[in-house]
Amino acid sequence: MNIIGQKELLISNHRISVRQTRAGSDGEDLITPDGQWDIMVYKLCGDVQVLLFDRPLLEPVQVPVIAGQEQLIISFHVGSYIAQIARSDEGVQFLPVKDNKTFELAGTTFTVPDFEEVESTITALIESGILVQDKVVAKTAHKQKPGASIRTIQRQFRNVTGMTPYYYAQAERAREAATLLRQGKSALATAHDLGYTDQFHMTHALKKFVGKTPRQIQQEERS
Question: What is the pTM of this model?
Answer without folding.
Answer: 0.89
